[in-house]
């Protein structure tokens, strides 16, 4: 305990230095950022206040306390707790509404009337000039509303900031509420853009108004859509080298891969196939880990699509000249770029596509998820209480997506080398112990894994997905880390997601330190795990009946330097 206390002290000290050093940065930012200056000193006091009383709370500490999760308590924000928070890199931000939402009357969500027209969301690269003019007008009006109107554009953007930087505590708990990196990712964003869309429509008196979707998973849509380069849709804080005609890199990791247009497109499609199909056969792999109330309920395990393309495109669009690639690259500022709503509209569409691929069976029936409750303002500026169960079926919300071809469905990757040849080469490799015991991930790590089950039947495979688990990933500081996982790769330095040997990619985004009102509010998990599904991949690599496979962890861009891994194993996921 004592040593943890010291680690905490040093960590806080570093933050304080960071704060003092970076406070000049806020000056040039928006109104909300300027407000943040006034509380830097206040914040220091708060942090020092914690130090007097307690040490940094980690998940390990909490386990010792054995706090039982309370099943009768739903996960929801405490609306009177909105407070300062920190950006991904630990800079103070303040996104709370001008007055506590707990002071406003609250109404329960009601489905829109069935007489309402279905709003059809179309691909952003295919909308016409009339539509663009309407959308521009709506955004212009939204931007002109006063900040104390919840329909104001910056207020809308700050909803994302509030829920993503941990500005709310959970109700009846000192834990933060954060909606990324877990099973709340899809439903929360569905709610956010649903209300945003309806506000836009009401501002221009058009009940047919629908958001567009950025169809980045289709070859024609893999560019920043033109409509975002003009009028009120412009955000000047974007990476200028990524404007059209540059093809988006759906697997971007701060490094320019320099693939030509054709190669980039085919890599993107193969990557999409992996994230939507072969890597996402089970609910947790696609939706993310189950996040529940209280400290025991914390989890950190994003689904395939959230990791990338979602995160990757946030980073790719945001300006390389800003410290956190604002606007689009940082949680607190992402929704200030109008393209945010089209990005999340596509992610929302892909959630539907994934459901369709599995025959629309309910993916999660856990009431803890279904009853998770959030608050948003509707087009009449009323504060609405809405549950995840309300948004599971989007047809009840009176919007739909125009049908587009999902080209990636036919982009199943192929082995980079014929499997019978790679098998011969891999046979000559010496066996490596899969227990890594904190091996540093500064270079590629290769291990040979024994598979507990071979010759599984088709039904067994459908029931249980074989997964690789990389466990005990210890990232020594709050930093960006990315590594890829390959199976039976002969030379992983020359292949990527376009090859079948690629199983998945782990990304750790910076989380920033979280500030809460109470000392227990700082919750940070030290070690994390990464799971990736490989049943289909093993079939394609002709390795389905092999008793052993080779697994390679490949750090990208030198980011593994201060990361260690305890080991790699195979498990089966229902
Ligand atoms: C909500 O937050 C406020 C401010 O921290 C606190 O006083 C109150 O006890 C919290 N309420 C619940 C139900 O958690
Ligand atoms: C990584 O760890 C080394 C010590 O092992 C340290 O000197 C270095 O500053 C760390 N680098 C980063 C980026 O944290």
UniProtKB/TrEMBL annotation:
Keyword check for Transferase: no
Stored InterPro entries: Di-copper_centre_dom_sf, Polyphenol_oxidase_C, Polyphenol_oxidase_cen, Tyrosinase/Hemocyanin, Tyrosinase_Cu-bd
Domain of life: Eukaryota
Residues annotated as signal peptide: 1-22
Recorded GO MF terms: catechol oxidase activity; metal ion binding
Swiss-Prot/TrEMBL keywords: Copper, Disulfide bond, Metal-binding, Oxidoreductase, Signal, Thioether bond
Stored PROSITE patterns: TYROSINASE_2
Record-linked Gene3D superfamilies: Di-copper center containing domain from catechol oxidase (1.10.1280.10)
Requisite cofactors: Cu(2+)
Residue ranges of domain Tyrosinase copper-binding in the record: 337-348
Family assignment from sequence similarity: Belongs to the tyrosinase family.
Protein name: Tyrosinase copper-binding domain-containing protein
Organism of this sequence: Papaver atlanticum
């Amino acid at each position: 305990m004592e040593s943890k206390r010291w680690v905490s002290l040093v960590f806080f000290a570093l933050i304080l230095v960071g704060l003092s050093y970076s406070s000049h940065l806020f000056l040039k930012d928006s109104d909300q950022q300027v407000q943040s200056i006034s509380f830097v000193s206040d914040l220091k006091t708060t942090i020092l206040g914690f130090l007097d009383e307690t040490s940094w709370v980690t998940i390990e500490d909490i386990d010792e306390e054995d706090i039982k999760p309370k099943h009768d308590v739903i996960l929801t924000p405490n609306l009177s707790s909105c407070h300062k928070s920190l950006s991904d890199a630990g800079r103070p931000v303040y996104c709370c509404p001008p007055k506590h939402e707990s002071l406003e009357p609250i109404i329960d969500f009601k489905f829109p009337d069935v007489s309402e027209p279905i709003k059809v969301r179309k691909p952003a690269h295919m909308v016409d000039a009339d539509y663009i003019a309407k959308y521009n007008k709506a955004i212009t009006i939204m931007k002109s509303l006063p900040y104390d109107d919840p329909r104001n554009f910056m207020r809308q953007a700050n909803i994302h900031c509030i829920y993503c930087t941990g500005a709310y505590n959970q109700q009846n708990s000192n834990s933060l509420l954060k909606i990324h990196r877990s099973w709340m990712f899809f439903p929360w964003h569905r709610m956010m853009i649903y209300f945003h869309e309806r506000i836009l429509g009401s501002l221009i008196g058009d009940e047919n108004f629908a958001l567009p979707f950025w169809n980045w998973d289709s070859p024609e849509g893999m560019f920043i859509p033109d409509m975002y380069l003009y009028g009120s849709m412009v955000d000047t804080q974007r990476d200028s080298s990524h404007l059209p005609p540059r093809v988006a890199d759906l697997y971007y990791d701060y490094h320019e891969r320099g693939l030509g247009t054709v190669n980039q497109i085919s890599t993107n499609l193969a990557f999409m196939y992996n994230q939507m199909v072969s890597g996402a056969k089970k609910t947790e792999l696609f939706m993310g880990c189950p996040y529940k109330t209280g400290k025991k309920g914390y989890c950190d395990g994003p689904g395939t699509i959230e990791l990338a393309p979602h995160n990757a495109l946030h980073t790719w669009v945001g300006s390389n000249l800003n410290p956190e690639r604002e606007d689009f690259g940082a949680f607190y500022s992402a929704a200030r770029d109008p393209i945010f709503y089209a990005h999340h509209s596509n992610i929302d569409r892909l959630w539907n596509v994934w459901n369709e691929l599995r025959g629309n069976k309910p993916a999660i029936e856990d009431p803890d998820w279904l009853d998770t409750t959030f608050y948003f303002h509707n087009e009449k500026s009323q504060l609405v209480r809405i549950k995840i169960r309300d948004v599971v079926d989007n047809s009840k919300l009176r919007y739909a997506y125009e049908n587009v071809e999902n080209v990636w469905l036919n982009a199943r990757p192929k082995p980079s080398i014929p499997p019978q040849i790679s098998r011969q080469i891999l046979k000559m490799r010496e066996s490596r112990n899969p227990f890594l015991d904190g091996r540093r991930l500064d270079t590629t790590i290769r291990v040979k894994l024994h598979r507990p089950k071979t010759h599984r039947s088709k039904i067994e495979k459908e029931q249980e997905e074989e997964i690789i688990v990389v466990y005990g990933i210890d990232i020594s500081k709050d930093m960006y880390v990315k590594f890829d996982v390959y199976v039976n790769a002969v030379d992983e330095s020359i292949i990527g997601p376009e090859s079948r040997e690629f199983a998945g990619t782990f990304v750790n985004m910076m989380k920033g330190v979280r500030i809460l009102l109470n000392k227990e509010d700082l919750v940070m998990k030290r070690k994390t795990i990464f799971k990736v599904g490989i049943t289909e991949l093993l079939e394609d690599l002709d390795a389905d009946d092999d008793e052993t496979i080779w697994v390679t962890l490949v750090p990208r861009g030198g980011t593994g330097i201060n990361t260690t891994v305890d080991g790699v194993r195979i498990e089966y996921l229902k």
